[in-house]
Each structure stands twice: as structure tokens, then as C-alpha cells.
Write a structure and sequence with these properties.
42% of the residues lie in helices and 19% in strands. By secondary structure, the protein is α/β, with parallel strands linked by helices. It folds into two domains: 56 residues, no CATH class; 206 residues, Rossmann fold (3-Layer(aba) Sandwich), CATH 3.40.50. Helix 11 packs parallel to helix 12. It binds S-adenosylmethionine (SAM).
Length: 272
């Protein structure tokens, strides 16, 4: 069967997904694939293509199959232990970079680091040292590997902790960044199956209203944020903007909301 026929004949997936699946199975770049649309695929190669297409059709995210995802122009390794970094999280990173400017002496925390996406980009672009925390040791192993491959191992530290539990009482940060789990319990069943069935529940589920982890982080801010420091929290819904804003206000912070490029509330900022 020709590559062009495989692509045209696959009705269960988008064209983009089929092309990506064929490239992955045959170890081709997209450019190579487009140059060889007439190539005949048979035997083991055809079996490999069919297997990858079937996995994708069953909902397995392509990033877990390729083992990589681009974030802020860097290639992050990913596996089922970590959330696949999302483009919308770049809004939080851009805001953090703008706030940091050219300061090099800040104590930065990435709470719930997952693949390390936020903390590693901040370490890379600002030269600051970043502490990356996660409750999952398997996620931290992925993040540590990414810090090494992206060249910021010396500026990053990885700590396995339930939020701030591993830090001694006096430990404070100038900047606390987090994209916490924020899917509300009552939204779980209606979540896209690709996400719900394949990405780690601990990275997604935020309890009632999706607010559980925000509430716990906000309660710690008065003793974890250094004077004059800032916290940036990604949020998942407009309703969360109100609730999380109120929590930051109660923690004594000046609150602002940052919207994404589609005009949707995406990040809550609190300034001390
Ligand atoms: C939504 S993911 C964000 C991952 C990454 N920061 C990103 O933006 O792609 C949330 C992360 O928080 C971690 N997490 C959940 N509960 C936690 C807790 N109590 N303490 C520390 N990390 C936690 C999860 O393991 C997961 O890696």
C-alpha cells in the first residue's frame, strides 16, 4: 500500500494525526514523507504504521508515543508520569520572564513541575536558580532529565514534596510559579478521553471546583513568599479566576489577572 493511500484511507483520525503517526512508525520527517508519498509500504513497516494509528485512534496522545513535546522552543521529554506541557502555559512563563527582567538573584519556585516545563525555561532564559517541586518522583526524574538535556542542570534543584512540606520553616521564595491540577471533580467525566484516560490524574484533578491545590498554596503564601515577591498561578476557568483571586487577596497580595491570546483569563498574579 502506498503512503498516500494509507493517509487517504484512514477515516478515524485527522489528517494531521495520520501523517504524524506514519512519520513516527517509519521514522520519517514530514518533509521526507511528503517527498515519498508514492513509496510502497508492506510487511513489518505496514504493521508498524497500523499499530501506531490504532494506538492514536484509541486516544493515546502523540506526545507520549514520540516521547517529546515542544514548549517555549525547547524539546521536552515526556512520558505517562507527566502532564504534556500545554501552549497556554507559555502565558505564565512570559509573564514570569517579564517580571524577572534582568534580575539574577531571585529564589524561584516551580510548584508541581511535572516535565519541568516552567522552571526549566525560567532557569534557561533568566539565569536564576529554580527549585522545582513535585509530589511524583517519576515526574521529577523526567524533569531532571530535561534540565540536563536543555542545559540548566546546575541552576535547577528537584525536590519531592507534598507542596511545601519538605521545606524548613524559614524558606521563602521571591517568585512562586505554578500550574497546579485544576480540573473540578464534576468536570472529570466530561474531560476529553485523550486527557482523562492517559495523562496522570494527580496532575489534573483539583478536587471540588478544581480549587483544592490553589487553596493549599494560598494558605502557605504569607510564610513562603518573600516580601515584595510574586506568585503566578495558571487557572483553568473564569470561575476559578474569581475564587483564586479572592484567595490571593486574603493572603494579603495585590491581585491581577493575565489573559491569554484568545482573551481568556489564564493566570492569576499576586504581588506582595
Ligand atoms: C497540571 S500539572 C503541571 C505540570 C507542569 N508544571 C506543566 O505546566 O506542564 C500539575 C503537577 O503538580 C503535581 N502535584 C499535584 N499535587 C501536588 C502536591 N500536593 N505537591 C506537589 N506537586 C503536586 C503533579 O504531580 C503534576 O506534575
Amino acid at each position: 500500500m502506498r503512503i498516500s493511500q494509507i493517509i487517504a484511507g484512514e477515516k478515524g483520525l485527522s489528517r494531521t494525526d495520520v501523517i504524524a503517526a506514519v512519520c513516527l512508525a517509519l521514522d520519517l520527517t514530514k518533509e521526507q514523507l511528503f517527498r515519498h508519498m508514492d513509496r510502497e509500504i508492506a510487511g513489518d513497516d505496514l504493521g508498524a504504521v497500523q499499530k501506531v494509528i490504532a494506538e492514536r485512534a484509541a486516544g493515546r496522545p502523540l506526545a507520549y508515543m514520540t516521547g517529546t513535546r515542544e514548549f517555549f522552543s525547547e524539546t521536552f521529554s515526556v512520558n505517562e508520569a507527566v502532564l504534556i506541557p500545554r501552549p497556554e502555559t507559555e502565558v505564565l512563563v512570559e509573564e514570569a520572564l517579564a517580571l524577572i527582567g534582568d534580575r539574577r538573584d531571585l529564589r524561584v519556585l516551580d510548584m508541581g513541575t511535572g516535565s519541568g516545563a516552567i522552571g526549566i525555561i525560567i532557569a534557561k532564559h533568566t539565569g536564576n536558580r529554580v527549585v522545582c517541586v513535585d509530589i511524583s518522583g517519576a515526574a521529577l526524574a523526567v524533569a531532571h532529565g530535561n534540565a540536563r538535556s536543555i542545559g540548566v542542570e546546575e541552576r535547577t534543584r528537584f525536590v519531592c514534596s507534598d507542596l511545601f512540606a519538605a521545606f524548613s520553616d524559614g524558606t521563602r521564595f521571591d517568585m512562586i510559579l505554578s500550574n497546579p491540577p485544576y480540573v473540578a471533580d464534576d468536570e472529570w467525566d466530561s474531560l476529553m478521553a485523550d486527557v482523562r484516560d492517559f495523562e496522570p490524574a494527580r496532575a489534573l484533578r483539583g478536587g471540588e471546583g478544581g480549587l483544592e491545590v490553589y487553596r493549599r498554596i494560598a494558605a502557605e503564601l504569607p510564610r513562603r513568599l518573600a516580601p515584595g515577591g510574586s506568585v503566578l498561578l495558571e487557572i483553568g476557568s473564569v470561575a476559578q479566576a474569581g475564587s483564586v483571586g479572592a484567595m490571593l487577596g486574603e493572603a494579603g497580595l495585590r491581585v491581577s489577572v493575565i489573559k491569554d491570546y484568545s482573551g481568556r483569563e489564564r493566570v492569576l498574579a499576586g504581588h506582595g
